[in-house]
Design a protein that fits this description.
The complex is a heterodimer of chains A (81) and B (354). With 81 residues, chain A is an all-alpha fold. Chain A has four helices and no strands. Chain B has 354 residues and is α/β, with parallel strands linked by helices. Chain B has a single domain, classed as Peroxisomal Thiolase, Chain A, domain 1 (3-Layer(aba) Sandwich). Chain B is built from ten helices and 18 strands. In chain B, the strands form five sheets. In chain B, strands 2, 5, 6, 7, 8, 17 and 18 form a seven-stranded mixed β-sheet that branches. A five-stranded mixed β-sheet of chain B has the order 1-9-16-15-14, sandwiched between helices. In chain B, strand 15 and strand 16 form a beta hairpin. Classes of the chains: A mainly alpha (81), B alpha/beta (354). At the A-B interface, helix 2 of A face helix 1, helix 6 and helix 7 of B.
């Protein structure tokens, strides 16, 4: 198992999804409120999380995730289980 | 289901047909703004699509493709013992369209003919059924038809699906063929996710009624009735990344082929973004994965043979190839195949001008 994933790694990933500078986001950012968030951004998130961390972000679970820190928690938990 | 295999049957000829009417997704139309359309084209890779007029059915596209194939190859039609029509947009609820096509294609009354209701996985399933029949000593040739007019199944005013689908038909001829070696197939189903891609109304569970035909407006501005198709895009993507890579690894293992030994990986053409994800995940070289969706959109079970005809024609005509095919989607249903083809006949793409 690789080292624990940091919230910062997910901030970088979401900046890639939202095509915005990393500085625009923080772990507390509510990515769904970002102007670039749409259904295609959702697919990008699922794809990048799978590629980067080998975790499949389930649509059911993802609905409840609001902030980047919560997303990071989800990915860490999924990798532990 | 375990991986199954079969020997000595090969695909010897292939043809496809599309309607002449070509739609450019970037020309603003209907509910899609230029910005919406650009986003869909960038992500899915689908730039143009062929759309059949109201008078043209999937069977008409298959009829044209099959006629061209049999004429081009000079096939004696009395040697075709089995006709399979794979479609979810048949002419009638009954009788089976395959039976009507037996007559239209001037095949003998000794032909076994039936329809198969499958979508995105339907070419892989169809090839297996066709190959199994063809392996019978008494069967000389099998004609597999895949046809869809999916543009008629979805609402053009649905933001999730309005720009994705195209219409097409294909014809595939199978014969006993020593050089074909062994073909491998794997099949899977998950009915628990049956509602991910579906048309709720118009069958016998929810018969057609004024209510099923009533158009409703949804949150995102999409307009559709219960007799239009719906698609849960994120759900389908989740399915894809969870299930399909494993299925492809399994069939590679069973067939004993490495990625390097496969000449082309022909995947169902639904969305370039999704297929590129699969490609990177499986470490398949880009040059081994052809696409036709930029020109023809998602044509359901026709997308694999249409890609072979339009993108791999020269290679299929000129040499022996080992192919890996994978179809995945509505059902949910998915399957993969590894097969070898000798130099085969591939007709030029036919266009139906109706």
């Amino acid at each position: 198992m690789a080292n624990e994933i940091s919230n910062d790694e997910l901030v970088a990933l979401m900046a890639e999804v939202l095509e915005c500078p990393k500085e625009e986001l923080s772990e507390n950012s509510k990515f769904r409120e970002h102007s670039a968030w749409d259904s295609l951004a959702h697919l990008s998130t699922v794809s990048l999380v799978d590629e980067a961390f080998g975790v499949v972000l389930r649509a059911e679970d993802f609905k409840a995730i609001q902030t980047i820190a919560e997303l990071a928690d989800y990915v860490r938990n999924a990798r532990r289980s | 289901m375990a991986v199954v295999s079969l020997e000595g049957v090969g695909v010897v000829g292939l043809a496809a047909a599309v309607p002449k009417n070509r739609i450019d997704n970037l020309v603003p139309a209907g509910i899609f703004t230029e910005e919406d359309a650009r986003a869909v084209v960038d992500k899915t890779g689908i730039r143009t699509r062929r759309v059949a007029p109201a008078s043209v059915c999937a069977s008409d596209l298959c009829h044209l493709a099959a006629d061209r194939l049999l004429n081009d190859m000079g096939i004696d039609r009395s040697t075709i013992d089995v006709l399979i029509f794979v479609s979810q947009t048949p002419d009638y609820r009954m009788p089976a369209t395959a039976v009507l096509l037996q007559h239209r294609l001037r095949l003998t009354r000794a032909t076994g003919a039936f329809d198969v209701n499958l979508g995105c996985s339907g070419f892989v399933y169809g090839l297996w059924m066709a190959s199994s029949f063809c392996a019978q000593p008494a069967v000389r040739r099998v004609l597999l038809l895949n046809g869809e007019t999916r543009t008629k199944a979805y609402s053009p005013r649905d933001k999730a699906t309005g720009l994705l689908f195209g219409d097409a038909g294909s014809a595939t001829l199978l014969e006993k063929c020593e050089g074909a070696g062994t073909s491998f197939f794997s099949f899977n189903s998950d009915g628990s996710r049956g509602d991910f891609i579906s048309i709720k109304g118009g069958g016998y569970r929810h018969p057609s009624s004024p209510e099923t035909l009533r158009e409703k407006t949804y949150e995102n501005g999409s307009v559709r009735s219960d007799e239009h198709g719906v698609m849960n895009g994120p759900g389908v993507f989740e399915f894809l990344i969870e299930e399909v890579p494993g299925d492809i690894r399994r069939i590679l293992t069973a067939s004993g082929a490495t990625i390097g030994e496969i000449d082309a990986f022909v995947f169902h053409q639904a969305n370039k973004f999704m297929n590129e994800h699969l490609r990177r995940k499986l470490r398949i070289p880009a040059e081994k994965m052809p696409y036709s969706l930029h020109e023809y959109g998602n044509t359901s079970s026709v997308s694999i043979p249409l890609t072979m005809v339009t993108q791999l024609g020269t290679m299929l005509r000129e040499r022996r190839n080992r192919l890996l095919l994978s179809g995945f989607g509505v059902g949910l249903s998915w399957g993969s195949a590894v097969l070898s083809t000798e130099r085969m006949h591939v007709s030029e793409l036919a266009e139906l001008d109706a």
